[in-house]
Design brief:
With 170 residues, the chain is an all-alpha fold. The chain has a single domain, classed as Orthogonal Bundle (UraD-like). Helices cover 70% and strands 0% of the residues. The chain is built from 10 helices and no strands.
Length: 170
């Protein structure tokens, strides 16, 4: 068994929940993951994470979304741990390096998106350029609310998977 999995299995319930909340801000998800321990492998951890995510309600998904800063910003609406804030900054690093015109367009798109859907634009930004993020934001503004909620939830699931892997690397 991987040492990082062993360490995660040995944490107290409160410590494990705090670690999982760094990966996904939905408390019900973090509790489900804590209760799913022990994990015998990274693969099982990732599978259980997906299952727990799929079992949540839209209310839980929205809670997870609030744990992220808007694309191009550094502060989330909900309190983030220092590690989660650092991961967000890394994930959005391409957006931070964009030219002023692109940054302005993303900021304006974020406002339109939040007004239209009632939650922030969520995208798994790792490895995406600012232009790719802006294109996705612009395209997704044309979705209906139900479709967009499902897309945002899938993007959050991808982010959670990446962060779980980062958690195991620390």
């Amino acid at each position: 068994m991987d040492q990082s999995i062993r360490r995660l299995n040995q944490l107290s319930a409160g410590e494990a929940e705090a670690e999982f909340l760094k990966c996904c801000g939905a408390r019900r998800w973090a509790k489900a993951m804590t209760e799913a321990r022990p994990f015998s492998s990274i693969e099982l951890l990732l599978t259980k994470a997906n299952e727990a995510w799929q079992s949540l309600s839209e209310t839980d998904w929205l809670e997870a979304f609030r744990a992220h800063p808007k694309i191009g910003e550094r502060k989330a609406a909900a309190t983030q741990s220092p590690q989660a804030a650092n991961w967000s900054a890394q994930e959005q690093s391409q957006a931070q390096q964009a030219d002023d015109e692109t940054k302005t367009a993303i900021a304006q798109g974020n406002e339109l998106y939040e007004t239209r859907f009632g939650f922030i634009f969520i995208i798994c930004a790792s490895g995406k350029s600012a232009d790719e993020i802006l294109t996705s934001l612009t395209e997704r503004l044309g979705n209906d609310a139900g479709t967009e909620m499902r897309i945002a939830a899938e993007e959050q699931r991808k982010i959670t998977q990446l962060r779980l892997q980062k958690l195991l690397e620390t």
